[in-house]
Structure formats: C-alpha cells, structure tokens
## 1
Amino acid sequence: MPETIPFDVFNPGCPSRKAFDQIFSRWGILTLSRLTPEPQRFGVLRRAVGGISERMLSQTLKALEEEGLVTRTEWDEKPPRVEYSLSESGLRISQSLNSVIQDLYGELDKRRPG
C-alpha cells in the first residue's frame, strides 16, 4: 500500500496548493461567499459580486467547479439556462469564509472613530 503523505499547503508542490490558490484568490473568496446551495443564474451572481467582469466570473466558476466546490447545471431550453450552486464541500468552505468576513467586519467596526 502506498504511503499517504499529508497535505501541506506551504509546500509549493503539494496538490492542495492549486485548490488553495483558486479558493483564496480575491474573486474565488467573493464568489464562494455569494453562492448558495440554491441555484443562481450567472447574471444574478455577477451583480452580487460587485466589480467582477463576466470573463473573470466565468473563469472563477470554472475553477471552483473543477475543485468540486461549485455545481453547474445546464438546462436544455431556449434561450439556454445555466445555474450555479455550492456543492456540499463548497457550502462548508463558504460558511467558513462568511464567518471570516463577519469577523473582519467586527474588527473594522472596532476601529471606527466613536
């Protein structure tokens, strides 16, 4: 049986690094934080992630789908309809990211002049 090597995101050769880079890019964090388990259309998601271009959102969703965090559903309709949602893994990571975001808001709020 081959030896199981633990993941080490600090090692540039570790396969976890690619997933880490995708998730923790600016657009990866914002996109995962805005996605939900319920399906969302591309346009709705683009408006929810302020400042992201269509091209960047498309690339980000594709990368997150490849990492198993996002599910893409394409409907055979005219015009075509595509929806995106979080996978189980994506939901767990999204919840953690949203918790970090809320903690950041709390810390920033403490710095406001009173």
## 2
Amino acid sequence: MKQTDMDIFQDSPELKKMPFSVPESYFDIRKAELKKPQAKKMSIWGRISPYAAVAAVFIFMVSAGTFFLEQTTPDQDMTEEDYLLFSDNMTISAIYEMEEDGQIAEAGIADEDIIEYLIYSGITAEEIENSK
C-alpha cells in the first residue's frame, strides 16, 4: 500500500533552497527610477497628427457627399428636346406656361410641323380651344 503522507521536501533539503536571488539594492534602484519624472518630448508632427487625421476625414466626407449629391441630383434646366419629349404628358397650356422666354418659338419649328404633330397625337380642336 502507498503512503500518501510523504512530503518530498522533508526527504531532500536541497529542494527547500531558493534557486533565484535578487541583486543587492535592486528594489531601491527601481523605486528611485519610478520617482523621477520623465519629460516626454513630442515632435511637432506628433502633436499635429491627430488634428490632421480629423481634417483629412472631414475633407473626404465632404467631397464624397458632394460627389454623390451631384451624381444623383437631376439637372434642373430643360432643353428644347426635353420640352418636346415631355409634351405628351402635359397639356398645351402647361407647355406655354413653362415657356417664359420663348425658346419653343425660337427653336425654328415650322407651323406645319406643329400641326402635323397635333394631328398625329390625336389632340382635337376643342382641347386646343379649351387649353387657352
């Protein structure tokens, strides 16, 4: 049967010895080093770099927002072709209300072309008369 009450330190006194040692006045030197205030010397770039990073992110966000806004916003100016394109969806009076500076009249469209267009689109004379 095994003995469980055996202590290996009692059998060998060499195991009781401390294998490590600390040099003399080691802790005194460390305390003195901790008490000394150490001045931190930062370069100019070290002080400015956080502000430069914030400025760079801000500039990026503004320029990206402006770019996407310009890409998604439709142009407000309608050309003569746009007037003619959208004229099928508008009444004749609405076209002339939008036309303030006479661009349609200056477009060089002959009266015969306008009459043919009105006949082709199926607008009756009553609709033209009522739109005035």
